[in-house]
Amino acid sequence: MQTLNTRYPVLVVNDTRVDQHHGCNCVMTSLNRLLEMNGLDPIAFWPAHAEWRDNAEFDAALNRAALVVINGEGTIHHDRASGRRLLEVGEAARDAKKAIALINTGWEANGPALTKMLRNFDLVAARDTRSAMQMRKGTDTVRVVPDLSFYSVGLGENLRDRSALARSGIGFTDNVDRNRALELELLRRSISGRTVSIFSGDEGGYLKFLRNGLSLRQDPKNPRRAFDLIRLRHRLWVNRSPDTADFKYTLARLKFLVSGRFHATTLAVALGTPFMAQASNTGKIAALAGDIGLDEWRTSSNLTHQNVLDAADQGWSKREAENRKDYLDRARAESEMLFADLRKLVT
């Protein structure tokens, strides 16, 4: 009879910590903890964006692994090549006769070719109901498990008693879409809101960070716009923190958050901070809010100066507060159940 004393080697694919975002750090912290709790030992973390095909190091890790776990996050949408590259790992693992799971996955606007590739997986978990409904066109075994960032709140940190925190101020993040990020920044300046940077590292340095916020083909055509984007990226750089616990503490002390970042909203929900959201590069934030049972206006209202001020004074409704608590309880329970089932794939 197998027990948790029997450890199984796992290859983890799409380690998003290379993106140096606090949300990705939270996801990977949860993933590590849940693997450890279930006797699953990561032997390699394959970085996001890294090519795995025809790579001897990847092949060696795949040969050693009993289980391959792909952390889908927000990679698989609109038939992008990066999404296809992740899904192709499923076929490689199946050919190598390894158990294979795709977890923590958003899914949007992918065609039949990518959807068909889901059949290669032994277990598939979407992070929201909207994604799961689309993925079930490829396999009927898709379950919904909330984003793993929720599980990270409270792990190895001391945020003090959050109910006793004095909340103040309206915080603004950026958006992965630079055009929408600039809209948020202009609104922040009109309200004199606080810049909340989701970035955690400095790998590549300051100039690379500035450059990553620009389209070098388009933005130089409009010098004023380019200047505003550079100024925004500078603010994000100087307001970043290497400590994810500090980032959570910042969110926990805000009266209100305005965000175009998915993981800033997941952590705001977990920490009890009311928010309004601007759409990101997919509908993932609206899908999240729908699953929680939050008021629709949080992700569909026009983000104007007055709307933000009014929403900040409103806080959570009674219904939202109850739905939020229930969702957080489910997130923890379903994450633990998911990883227990991952172990079952190799026992």
Account of the protein in words:
The chain is globular and about 55 Å long. The chain is built from 15 helices and ten strands. The termini are close together. The mean pLDDT is 95. Strand 9 (256-260), helix 11 (262-271) and strand 10 form a beta-alpha-beta unit. The strands form two sheets. The chain has a six-stranded parallel sheet, with helices on both faces. The protein has a four-stranded parallel sheet with strand order 8-7-9-10, with helices on both faces. Helix 8 (205-212) crosses helix 9. By secondary structure, it is α/β, with parallel strands linked by helices.
SSE inventory with pairings:
Blueprint: E1 8-15, H1 22-37, E2 40-47, H2 56-64, E3 67-73, H3 81-95, E4 99-105, H4 112-116, E5 123-126, H5 129-135, E6 142-144, H6 149-152, E7 170-175, H7 178-191, E8 194-195, H8 205-212, H9 223-238, H10 244-253, E9 256-260, H11 262-271, E10 275-277, H12 284-292, H13 297-300, H14 305-314, H15 318-344
Parallel strand pairs: 1-2, 1-3, 3-4, 4-5, 5-6, 7-8, 7-9, 9-10
Helix pairs in contact: 8-9
